[in-house]
Structures are given as C-alpha cells and as structure tokens.
Amino acid sequence: MSTYDLLLKNGYVVDPGSKLEGRYDVAIAGGKIEKIAEHIDGTKADEIIDAGGHCVLPGIIDLHTHMSGDFGGRYAHKMVAEVGVTTVLDMAGPIDSSVSMAANYGTGVNVACIHMVRGNVTIEGEDPSREAIHAFLDKALLAGALGCKILGGHYPLTAAATARIIEVANERQAYVGFHAGTKDTGSNIDGFLEAVNLAAGHALHIAHINSYCRGQVRDPLAEANQAVAALIDNPNITSESYISPFNGTSAQCAGGIPESNVTKTCLKAGGYAADEPGMEQAILKGWAFVNIPEGGRVVLKAGPEARDFWRANATAANVSFPINPADSRLRLATAKRPDGSFAVGAISTDGGGIPRNSIIDMGLSLVKLNALTLREFAVKTSLNPAASLGLKSKGHLGLGMDADITVVDLETQKAVMSFVNGRPVMYKGLVVGRGAQFITTAAGKQAIADAGITPLVVDLAESDFYTRARK
Hints:
Layout: E1 6-15, E2 20-29, E3 32-37, E4 48-50, E5 55-58, E6 60-66, H1 74-82, E7 85-92, H2 95-105, E8 107-117, H3 130-142, E9 147-150, H4 159-171, E10 175-178, H5 189-199, E11 204-206, H6 220-233, E12 237-242, E13 249-250, E14 253-254, E15 257-258, H7 261-269, H8 276-284, E16 289-294, E17 297-301, H9 304-312, E18 318-320, H10 326-334, E19 346-348, E20 351-352, H11 359-368, H12 374-388, E21 405-409, E22 414-420, E23 423-427, E24 430-431, E25 435-440, H13 445-450, E26 454-457, H14 464-470
Parallel strand pairs: 1-4, 1-5, 6-7, 6-20, 7-8, 8-9, 8-25, 9-10, 10-11, 11-12, 12-19, 25-26
Antiparallel strand pairs: 1-2, 2-3, 5-21, 13-18, 14-15, 16-17, 16-18, 21-22, 22-23, 23-24
Helix pairs in contact: 1-2, 3-4, 5-6, 6-10
C-alpha cells in the first residue's frame, strides 16, 4: 500500500508560511501536505508529477471576484480555475446565485461569498435601520454568506446607514466589505477616506484600493500615497488591490441613464456623455468594452458587435473601461508599513466572471521587475488572504495543511497546474476539477449542504479580519 496519494517532484517550492524556499519534493496524502523534502522515494506514491522547471506555490487565493449569475455566471468557475486560482471570495453575490453557480458549474475551486447590500434591491431604501440590517444579515448568513458587501461606489447609501451596516456586521462577527462611496462622496479618494472614518475602528474590508486612485481628485500617485498612509494608520482595515488596467461595472441604463455611478464617472473620464447615447459611442469607439460570453468564457469586446450585444440585452450587460493608471496600481501593489508588512494586504483581480483574472501573469511581472520577491508574491496571494478569511488550514504548505497548490511557469508567467485538497483542478490549461467547497459560517452550513455542496465552516471571530481590528 502506498504512503502518498500524489508526489510532486523537483519543483522550486516557495512557501512563506513555513519559511521554505528551494528545490523540494512535495508529498500529499488524504488531501493534506504529508511531507516536503529534498528527495522523497517515488515508490511510495500512487502518482508522480514532475514539477521540474516550475515554481510550486501555496494555492492562489483571490480575495475579490464575482462568481454569481450576474457576473460571468457559469463561466466564472472555469475562468478562475484556468489561471490557477484555488480559492475565491465572491464580493457581491447575490448569495443564492453564487451558491447555485457553485453547485451547477463548480470546477473544484473553494468559494466564499458576501451578499450585496443594494438599496431598494436587497434591502429597503437607502437609509436602512439597524433592525432592517439585522434582518438582512440573518437571511444572508442562513443562506451561506460570510457576511455582506456595501456597493456604495455603484449604488450609494447614506453615510449614516453605511456606518450602521459596518457596526451591525461587527456586532454579529460577520465579514463586511465596502466599495467606498456614499450619498456624500463617490468612488474616489475622498470616498475611501470617508470609508476609513465610517469604520470608526471596526473591522472592514475596503475593496480594490486602486479604484480610488484614478486621479479624479488629485494626481493618481498622490492619491495612492494618501491611501497607503491611511491604511498604515488604520490596521482595522483589510484591503486588496488589482493590477489590471481594466475595471468592471454595469452598462445597464434606466431612463436613458446608467444605473451605476461608477459607469457614469468612467464615461465622463473618457470624454463621453454619462447617458445611454454616450455609452453607445464609448462602445463603438473602443473606450467601453462589453463583457461577452464566447467559447466557454467571458471576453472583452468593443465596436459594432459589442454594441449589438449590449442592445440585444436591453443594456443589461457588464462593461470594462481601461481606467486604472499604472503608477497608482504599482504603488499600491508594493507599498509597505514600517514593520515591513504590506499596506495593502493582498493582490486581487475583481475578476472571476469579469475577464481580468491576472494575479499570476501581472503579479509575476512585479517579481521580474524586482518590485516583489517570490516569497512576497505568495504572501499577498495566499498567506494573507487565507488569514483574512479565517482559513487556518490554507495559505501555506506546512505539514498537515490542506494540499491547495498552484504550480507556475516563471518564464511564461502562467499557471501550469493546480490542486485543491490534493485533487487536480487544472492541468496544463485544461480544467479537470468538478464540484466545489463553499466557505461559510456555522449559520450557513445547512443551506450549503442542502445545495449539494461541501461546506467549509470558518469562525470569523478568529480570522485576521477581526483579530487585526482588536489589536
């Protein structure tokens, strides 16, 4: 009888959690890391894969994706698996759709979700009471969500209601994310600084810090430096940023006007009117790229074909603009606190079903530029995100940890294979994984099991998301 289920031979292992870096073999048994050594006897393994010439990393965790039917739908799971991601946080849901997509189209990737707070859609009005917020969270948590996300930049609530949601979520020890912006501010550096103040020391995940550093108020680099300073001064804030030049928003219009405030801002930034005719011109002239399903994934397209797709769907489509300046993206990806830890804790994508799943290809460019070391890359793409979600058995390759692994080619800057709990998810670009494991709280365990998905229960009170706010 074999000792190991799988043996990865000859890979260059980089694992900041166990402070390991070098050429090692990695043995897996029962879905766990069983042994790491310079040489492990292959006769003791059921299966051997040669990882020679490649880098073996803890499984990539994307702390900001969109996996529901509203954003990429059935294609999102395939799209993240193709690029070597092993765990995702769906930052919006809606939770019922996120669970359904995982149940029907899962590719073996671990999924968590925080349910969207959108006034007059998922909660009554734009100034909900504490009672309404508690009722909202009751429903979301029982459905399997880890907590909630305030969609302020797109669909703002009052500042007072936003503060109440953060406070109530903290009382409940639920995860709470925020796309900064309220009725008083926008999705810009002023909105970000307002978000920090509204948190009032409570735990809060402010999404995609780069989105507030696009030069709407000041120079983009000056805005990035201001954001970094605020994050250093407020360790209660969990954060991530993405490196893609493209954002993602809604192209849906009502009464001839885009529903999302972010979309209006992007149109104006490109010199187009913030209305339906302006959107059409932006699509035709290559400023707005419609997200279109094609060939089993979602792609970006502009021009007449994209305009026709948008019209055929009565404007109910997603759209991306090349709105993110390079200087602020690079600053936020690499900025550090005085103690050497990262000011922005994670590299994310805001991707999933939005086609910009670029953690590995763009993140490894920072390594080639010597802006990050490989170990630092692994910190920002696995160790830190796992801690934020309370995933105590993920994020590094220590003995007994879950065998979530991403193997990358440093030359091509692409993932070549990935594993979750020792099971293959992707091999040489082909997605082979099936099913899903859904990360939830004790309140949502039954709903996830009832959906036919394996629940992975976490205690957020012990996660870095909350412990950092208590320091």
